[in-house]
Amino acid sequence: MPALWIAHVTVTDAEAYGKYAELAGPAIAAHGGHFIARAGRFVQLEGKERPRNVVARFPSVDAAVECYHSEAYQAALDFARGASERELMVVETSE
């Protein structure tokens, strides 16, 4: 079943986070992921608001988790740590 990688982010260091974004995109693509929403307009209805929201679609939960733990994504993530506050989850779709 396909899965969605959903991140809610507050960027605290735009320069470092920009380096994360440059590296994260190719790492996500290498695992079959593609962005379906990336920092677009949103309406917060409940919970903590984060100004940047990203959704990527993966072939499966396992593919998304493998991406997260991959060497390439972890190298990207080194730039996001300390440069953002974020929540990230992977959710299987019903498709």
From TrEMBL:
InterPro entries attached here? Dimeric_a/b-barrel, DUF1330
Highest taxon listed in the record's lineage = Bacteria
User: Start and end of every DUF1330 domain?
Assistant: 2-93
Q: Which SUPFAM superfamilies match?
A: Dimeric alpha+beta barrel
The record's Pfam families line, in alphabetical order, gives: DUF1330 (PF07045)
Q: Can you say what this protein is called?
A: DUF1330 domain-containing protein
Q: Which organism is it from?
A: Sagittula salina
